[in-house]
Amino acid sequence: MNTKDIKTFEERLLAEKAELESELAGIAKSDTHNRGGWEANAGNMEVDAADENEVADKFEEIEENTLIANQLENQLIEVKAALDRIKNGTYGVCEKCGKPMEKGRLEANPSARISIKHDHK
Ligand SMILES: [Zn+2]
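^ thats the input. predicted complex w/ zinc ion below
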């Protein structure tokens, strides 16, 4: 991969990072004590505690937000790690075999860590 290729991937990763952060900002608040730096919003807790349905709905909503926030957070961690690899000059190298990854692999997923060949989950 040449510098121009890496630059293209970097731009894609930065755009993805901004998108993930704005999505997270909608459902979570920044929390530096957290692994990924975000915590799902509890939302407006002014529910009628006497109304069981309302309380249950509220908990469901929080649970759902937590789930989505965790997914976004994990994606964000991967994107940030890929940007770090660009900085360190190790971007595009398969973590399993240490060889350069297929360009198509990175085109499909710019934050991939492992080559298609070695990605057996
Ligand atoms: Zn590999």
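The helical segments are 3-27, 52-88, 103-108.
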